[in-house]
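Incident log, structure service

09:12 report received: a user says their structure output differs between two submissions of the same chain.
09:20 pulled the input from the user's history:
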Amino acid sequence: MIPATLRLSLIIAVVCYFAVILYFLKQKALNLKYTLLWLVAGLIMGILVAVPELLKTIIHIFGIQDNMNGLFIFAIGFIIMILLSLTSIASRQNRKLRTLTQELAILEKRVRDLEQKDAK
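09:34 re-ran on a clean worker, output below:
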């Protein structure tokens, strides 16, 4: 059982987390589709803070003996999922940037060729 003061502190932390995420969304520092990942993370944190018995049940279903070990395992797993998602986004952006660079080089060559043709 989580002590009342710790639970209150965690609830305040989750509310602050949502406020920061929504502030970033309003300032357009995060795109909506990427913000959804962080909002889901906050929702899961909020649920686990509000209903800590749910975490115990999930941990025992997976056969983990200690609650703290289960919490760390799930936290590490969630961090890995976020890292995979961000790596996927970075890879996609890299591919788009390479394509745009190649298209720009082709257009610059065409412009130079047209300028040389007009100069003659």
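09:41 both user submissions now match this output. Likely a transient worker issue. Closing.
09:42 reviewer note: The chain has a mean pLDDT of 88. The two ends are 85 Å apart (CA to CA).
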